[in-house]
Amino acid sequence: MTDLPDGEVLKQRIGTPCPSLAGLDINQIIIECPECHRYVRACCRHGYSDGRSYHFDQHLCHLFKVVYTDGACTNNGGADAKAGLGLAIGTNVDAEEHTKSIPVDDSIDPGAPRTSQRAELLAAIEGLKLLEETPLPGHRRVLRAFARRDGDNSDDERDVYLVVTDSEYVVKGMTEWLPSWKRRGLRTSGGKRPTNLDLFLALDRLVTRLENDRVAVGFWQVPRAFNQQADALAKRAASNAI
Predict the structure, then answer these.
(1) Residue 144: enclosing H or E segment and its boundaries?
(2) Of 44, 130, 149, 163, which is the most exposed, with the fewest CB atoms less than 10 Å away?
(3) Confidence at 85, pLDDT banded by 50, 70, 90
């Protein structure tokens, strides 16, 4: 369990919102900042829900940074399968880093079969890397202003990265299955090596490194209808894969 500055917690890396946001649609909880056009999740401490929409003061809190991720694969698992990754951290068409459409080749996943499940895991890995590589200008200044307003004199520099995906495989894999596999010596309940264990462990190592660097990481599964941007980027990448 990871304690966060606004009083929330991430249990087992599950990134669902706090109860006070219950009843809001996902597109009301994940907000595009009107200033930087990045995606952030509504903060329960620095805003409020009236049951119909989320309201915030002059500045939108950027504590919870969001990346939408998706993976696509044509002819899944076949000899001529092609896979692609889609990532979206914002909507600014002039900011190249806001979206990524990445064909999967051996530079990304060497010697491995091209499957939709591997593409979903690779997208989560690349999505976290993208968040790490694209810090938000002025983010610390805004958080410090909120802290002063709330009488909080602590210097908590923790960030929160949220991987938002429609993949149950990724979310349950990272929050439920992997902890169970670790308790069994990296084996399933049937004593077998889990499928795609290499990527689950690679994602786990990345998350652990971020956590050790004071970045909390959560995974949140949303319906596919709310992941259309990343889905389109992933399909485009798969169509361009060699």
Answers:
(1) helix 139-149
(2) 149
(3) very high
Q: Do residues 197 and 188 lie in contact, with contact meaning Cβ atoms separated by under 8 Å?
A: no
Q: What is the CATH number of domain 2-240?
A: 3.30.420.10
Please tell me the pTM assigned to this model. Answer: 0.90
Q: How far apart are CA 200 and CA 185, in angstroms?
A: 14
Rounded to whole angstroms, the Cα distance separating 172 from 182 reads 14
Amino acid identity at 144: R
Measure the CA–CA gap between 147 and 63, rounded to whole angstroms: 12
Strand partners, 83: 73
Residues ≥6 apart with Cβ < 8 Å to 227? 68, 70, 164, 165, 166
> Residue 67 in contact with residue 125, Cβ under 8 Å?
no
Q: Specify the pairing of strand 215-221 against strand 159-165.
A: parallel
Encoded tokens for 29: 């909880």
Q: What is the pLDDT of residues 175-217, one digit of tens each?
A: 999 999 999 999 999 999 999 999 999 999 999 999 999 999 9
pLDDT, tens digit (0-9, with 9 covering 90-100), for 95-143: 788 999 999 999 999 999 999 999 999 999 999 999 999 987 655 555 5
Phi, psi of 37 (to 5 degrees): 65, 20
Check if the beta carbon of residue 118 is closer than 8 Å to that of residue 158.
no
Q: For residue 91, give Cα distances in angstroms to 77, 99, 122, 157.
A: 32, 8, 22, 26
- Provide the pLDDT confidence category of residue 59 given band limits of 50, 70 and 90: confident
